[in-house]
Known about the structure:
Chain A is α+β, with helices and mostly antiparallel strands. Chain A contains 8 helices and 11 strands. Chain A has helices at 13-18, 28-37, 118-127, 129-155, 158-169, 186-192, 197-211, 225-233; strands at residues 39-43, 48-50, 58-64, 67-72, 78-84, 89-90, 104-107, 111-117, 178-181, 214-216, 219-222.
Amino acid sequence: MATVLKHPSSLPVGDVIGALALFEGLDTPAFERLNAAAQRLNIPKGKLLHLQDDPADYFYVIVQGWVKLFRETLEGSEAIIDVLTSGHLFGENAVFENDCYSCAAEAIEDTTLISLPTALLKELIASSNQLALNMLSSMSRHRLQQHREIEHLNVQNAPQRIGCFLLRLCKPDQPVPVTLHLPYDKTLIASRLGMKPETFSRALAKLKEQTGIRIVGPTVYIDRLQALVSYTCNHCSTSFPCDDLG
Amino acid sequence: MATVLKHPSSLPVGDVIGALALFEGLDTPAFERLNAAAQRLNIPKGKLLHLQDDPADYFYVIVQGWVKLFRETLEGSEAIIDVLTSGHLFGENAVFENDCYSCAAEAIEDTTLISLPTALLKELIASSNQLALNMLSSMSRHRLQQHREIEHLNVQNAPQRIGCFLLRLCKPDQPVPVTLHLPYDKTLIASRLGMKPETFSRALAKLKEQTGIRIVGPTVYIDRLQALVSYTCNHCSTSFPCDDLG
């Protein structure tokens, strides 16, 4: 559920939630109630927002920053389900999941959020078919993203999964050679891609060797975009550039 | 989206669709229209029902049999997204995905389906908030299943993923020692779990060694259920028995 927010830090709360696809076409009284209940929160890096199975009183819109959603196994490993940034929502699904969060959430950078009560969302969905349809569209888009994720975990090897992660950071009109910045640290990228740190290092070395990309600190230089695309996207059901992953 | 169907092969079409959670609480005129448009289809094993990106005129309810949903990569590998049986729906999400199927579908056994027009579903969702809410609940449940799937692909090793597959076939009140039958062939189980056949064979050998399970043809004998549970479920965020995967 991503909406591109322009200059998010300077926007009033109403403008941020007004820009969300989820609330498109909502009638004024419903929107006013959401606006009145919305609160801006500044969350420091590293703060745990909630645990899996916690009662979900609020859902959140990310104004600026990064949030990871994860689940913890009984023996203590962490499985990252998603890493979200500006314009994404999380926790809204609790409405359909016994009012509990299905994942834990942690701010991985200093993050600004807007919180909204899940009880209000639940009430409005039951009375507004427009909101229910918006939510269905968003959830369906998310389902497609998850299909792609399952596909990649099934058929791509580790270097290809890293290649795909990098290609998703490229803008469609980006001039070649491409220079881009890793959005968060490599350990987290490894976890996000379902790799142990040592697997990630080996895979990254192989990707560099196969495609000629260079990485200096958090900066990635892609001199031959087509080489990276061929290496990665032949092992996916969609060709580059794909815009289905928000 | 699973609903348990009793004696599905002998049920009239209206009873099958009437038992679906998706249509619960739907008003009589809407239900009558669905019922009038529903068609029963007998599909032989191996028949391709549709390709990914095909226009989606119909969605389907599985009455009896098995259907695999998959995506094909540009270089021709197949990634299995799901394998579904009686009571499951597929294709209904096309309503939110430009009226195209997001996965290919193939009958992997002789299968009986009921087809329903997606255009009618789209029309009814727009006018019935009850139907929209039912669809949201189903989609949310599916989203949780996919979270679990991503979690497992990220943190479980291959023998644990096979262990999990077997534990999901156990009924909660099943007497120990457990005897169960593999629902489809091992090659397909391997693909469903994102493994190459040789990885699957090695992983199965390790699982047998670690947990004492025995497999003769399509029959699995679990003499020490707790050993299988400990080996598998400590590497998951939910303890056995988990009922969230339909």
